[in-house]
Structures are given as C-alpha cells and as structure tokens.
Design brief:
single chain; Alpha-Beta Plaits; seven-stranded mixed beta sheet; four-stranded antiparallel beta sheet; about 35% helix; globular
Amino acid sequence: MDLIATLQCSDQPGIVHAMTSAVLACGGNIIENQQFTDEPTNTFVMRTRFETTQGIDASRKSLNEGLGKFSPTLHIRPTQSKPRALVLVTKESHCLRDLLYLLELGELPIEIPVVVSNHEDLRSLVESHGFTFIHLPVTTATKAAQEKEILALIEKHSIDFVVLARYMQVLSNDFCAALPGRIINIHHSFLPGFKGAKPYHQAHAHGVKIIGATAHFVTANLDEGPIIEQDVAHVSHTSTPDDLVALGRDIERRVLAKAVKLYAQDRIFIVGERTVVFS
C-alpha cells in the first residue's frame, strides 16, 4: 500500500529520525520526503510518502506511537484516495470548466460530488459532464439559511474541502470558521486597488503593466487568507480591457487548478498567516 503522511508540530530534535523509525517499524519504505522549518514560528512540517505491506491501520498505529511525544498534527491516507470537493460557482464558467476538463483527463486527483450555485447559468455545463448541480439562490434574507444548506451538503457528501470557482458571494464569518483551512478561493489579487465591478477595466484605465491572480485560503478577513499559488502576466498600453479580461481568465483558471491539485496531494501547510507549499 502506498501512503502519504503529513506532520506539523513545533520544531525539536529527533522528528525526522522518529518518522523514519516509525515507517520502518510498520514494514514501510520511504519513497519521497520533504521537510521545512519555519524559523519565525518554530514550526516544523513534513510530507512523507511511503510503501508498506501492513496496511493503513498498522501504519497509523506505528506513526502515532513513534511520533506522539512531539504532539504533532498527523494525517495519513492512501495515496490513491481522492479528496472530495464541493465547488461553488456563480455565472462565470472558466475556472469550473478547467476543473472539469482536468478531471476528465485524469490530471486532477479529486472527486466532485456536487456543484452549488446561486444562479442557474451553469447548470447545463455541470450536468453535461455528469455532475450534480444544486441551485441555492442567495439574498440578504436567505444568506444564513443557504449557508446552512451548503454545510448540510458538506456533511451529507463527506466533503473534504470547498472550492470557490469564481463564486461571487462573500461567505459569512460563521461559515469560514466552520471550515478553517478547507476553503480555496481565486482572486485577481494583483489588482488590489481595483475593487468592485469590472476590475480589469479599472486596471486598464490606470495603465497597469502587470495583472495576475492569487489562490488563497478563505478566512473571515476578505481576500487576506494564506496564499497558496500566484501567477502574473505583463501587459502594455496596447492591451484593451477585453484583452485584460481574457488574459485574467486564463491566469485565474490555471492558478486555481494548481492550488486545488496541491491541496489534493497534501502539499500545503498553513503556518501562521502564510503557507508552506511543497512542489
């Protein structure tokens, strides 16, 4: 059996030795190992992939016993098990289309049991790919009730994380608190001064020379959660607002897909207000 173990704890001597000893104790062989110490917070993180003939229960027991003295956050799962994502969308389709396309190619190791939207626009796209689409319209009066419906769907479908694929609603503090480190959003973060409607048109009016996007975890502080992945593209005075929109869509879909894949492979660790991401 091929397993992935992730560990996070205070840095101290002997952690790597304890991990390798625990893997050996359950008949395991380490295939891949990455580690990092964040000095400002004295936090140690490690991702270890190993093979064993003893199965996940014996491996979990061995690692818990061998590493328990370090009081770690420890997670072990079969490499082939795919995290389950609930995707939230509104009207824009580019990020969702890319996720569905990569799923069809077998390049995105997740499952999507359900796609939820506050509009009906993307129903045909979702259902044409064989996925369940649920329409939950949101108003000021219904927002709290609809978020409870989404949380119920997360419970019903054993959802591991939520992906905001251009979901144009601000999530409440209570919803964010219910899923810490489990909601990924995409944002045109390289246009920080251009909030509200048509940010790319505002950017064009101000003559920007770089546009980009950031995938980040969602927190109660709007668009300020720990950053997972970013990318940029250079533009010039010849670029029209439509050019910026098209280029922005391309960056957004790529950055979000990369972040989702990194999450699905257990390569992201939240350390304080930032992340450690193993490639």
